[in-house]
Amino acid sequence: MKGVRQRLTKRLVESVVADNGPVKLWDSEVPGFHVEARPSGKRAFYLFYRVGGGRGSTQRRAKIGEFGPMTVDAAREKARQWAARVANGDDPAAERHQQRIAPRMNELFERYLEDHARPHKKPTSIAEDERIIRDYLAPAFGNRKVAELVRADVARLHAGLSQKPYRANRVLACLSKIMNLAEVWGLRPDGSNPCRHVKKYAERPRKRFLTTAELGRLGEALRAAERGEVRVTKGGGTSAGSSTISPFAIAAIRLLILTGMRSGEVKMLRWDWIDPERRRIHVSDSKTGEKQVTLNAAALEVLSGIQRVDGNPHVIVGGKPGAALVNLKDPWSAIRKAAGLEDVRIHDLRHSFAAVGAGSGTSLHIIGGLLGHSQAQTTKQYAHLADDPLRAASDHIGGQISSWLNDGSPER
Q1: Assign residue 365 a region: left if phi > 0, alpha if psi is -120 to 50, beta otherwise?
Q2: Is the dihedral of CA 404, 405, 406, 411 positive or negative?
């Protein structure tokens, strides 16, 4: 039957016998369209065609589909469409090959981390991206091809996180950046980011700062931790028989509330960054870049009480030789529980520093200078400030906080 051309039908395709090897039946209506029967009993439709003109033309054989799941008429119509595309210079077989080898989302996630996040972002931001990819993006899209992801897929994931609007928006922002880079790297057409027009959820800013009475309770909990009376277990919480809290972790918490520094800045603080005479900390690589932190007397006192560890450049020392403290979350969880402040995040200590200053009449410009705000317009307004008003404001805020930490004064 090889070489015979006749109109392919369901009955004809089912009747062909291929006991001694593959057998091809060629269709008489669409040139190059044929079915191949195999000894296994399977049958598949193909289109034979040539690309390029003249002697330099190249033969192609593109698979259309399997007989059974695809009818003869559907295969013939697809062959007719492909033949028209070939006439216009397309190559269906090459396109299908490219689709088969096209990168999947898991490969894109890894490239994003290796080529963008790790070279350009801060360690805390890298860790957050890794967590978002591991917990949300990879389970949802990891095996999908990069070119196939559409807006409906993204919207479905975002809607599934509606009970966690802040988390949903962070996941959307991370995926949007990844898909933008997919365009830059030529893996998707320009302007095809499937995150576009997926509306973010409204986020209510969480403003929490400690009152005078709460600062007093925090001071009592810190002193109890220094006496070994507040203990910590992995994942937070307190229980008998668990470990005491490191004095370095306790000192870190005191520095956070007394300076308004960020958690990552305090954890990575090095002794050579500190200038006690000028009462400054030079942070070379913070979230907002290089900045100066003005030290008040209370913060200097905390620093003077921290033991230096030979061979370790860090102020807040971790468990590994030469390393900084990594886990401040569990010690803070135990201390805030002991103080009855379980709704207070560690970042709220920074808010509390600013709130004490604002409540005592300190200029918002001065407070912004002390905190090292990153907005360009605000930063320009702080640039002309001298050290004296900054130091005076820091002393005032630090003195009040230290007083409440140590005395536990009643709430006013």
Answers
A1: alpha
A2: positive
| CB contact burial 312-338 (16+ within 10 A = b; e otherwise) | bebbbbbeeeeebbeebebbbbbbbbb
The answer to whether 83 touches 30, Cβ cutoff 8 Å, is: yes
- Phi/psi of residue 306, each to 5°? -85, 130
pTM higher than 0.85, yes or no? no
Supply φ then ψ for residue 23, to 5 degrees: -125, 135
**Segment (H or E) for 192:** none
Residue 87, pLDDT score: 80
Q: How many CB atoms lie within 10 A of CB 408?
A: 16
Instruction: Report the alpha-carbon distance of residue 288 to residue 16 in Å, rounded.
Output: 73
Q: Nearest-CA neighbor of 263 among 77, 406, 122? A: 122
Backbone angles phi, psi at 384, to 5 degrees: -85, -5
Measured N-to-C along each axis, helices 364-371 and 387-407 cross at an angle, to the nearest 10 degrees, of: 80
Greatest Cα-to-Cα distance within the chain, rounded to the nearest angstrom: 101
Pairing of strands 43-51, 33-37: antiparallel
Residue 378's pLDDT is: 34
pLDDT in tens, 48-64: 888 766 565 678 888 88
Say if residues 207 and 344 touch (Cβ distance below 8 Å): no
Placement of tokens 């931001």 in the chain: 125
pLDDT, tens digit, for every residue of 254-264? 999 888 888 88
The answer to whether 289 touches 378, Cβ cutoff 8 Å, is no
Task: Report phi then psi at 51, rounded to 5.
Answer: -120, 145
CA 92 – CA 284 distance, rounded (Å): 56
